[in-house]
Amino acid sequence: MINIYIDIETLPTDNEKIRERIAATIKAPGNYKKPESIKQWMDENFQTEFQAAVQKTALDGTWGKIVCIGWAVDDGPVNVTIGDGEFEVLTRWADGLAIEIDRIHGKSSEDYGRPWWTRAQWIGHNIQDFDIRFLWQRLRIHRLQLNFPLPMERYPKGPYIYDTMKEWSGYGKYVKQTDLELAFGIERNDPLASGADVATASLADIVAHCEEDVRCLRLIHKVMQ
Question: Does the pLDDT value for residue 121 go beyond 60?
Fold first, then answer.
């Protein structure tokens, strides 16, 4: 089995057309009837409501974007792929992953004529509902086709998903990765207080945060195996 540890960091949309669409949805609550009261509500609340709605796009692969991808293969080094725009991040990551698998596994990455991805296990925290789907969506938006499939099926025959959140809590329940780190005694050295700070952080801090996510994820997985 080839273990692929992965974590993505995402940002809200900076597409002006999408932001304009969001702005058009901001309305005063229905109990505001008079034009002057509606105007007052909009004057006082529009920017707050608008910024909150824009921030939510970072959680939606239709509108948000990937700023970096953290990943590691087996016990190899933790890598964080960045680039000049999302298209470059995605292509650099796909190329780098294939090269790293070949470096670690060599000829064994092909097993009786089967490609390496049939023996890959994709490991992440909330990977099934977020990271993999977000990746797949952004790849489609950029019209990018990988040389290997992503495990999109809920019960895939291969490649496989190991979601540390679902393995620990069960389907429909939630646990933070940092809670598992605390429970398992895993020390985190992170410049950010939480993932919620990514949208306003420097690229250097985002990269360091992503690297810690993957490093700690691998330690969690080793405890849970």
Answer: yes
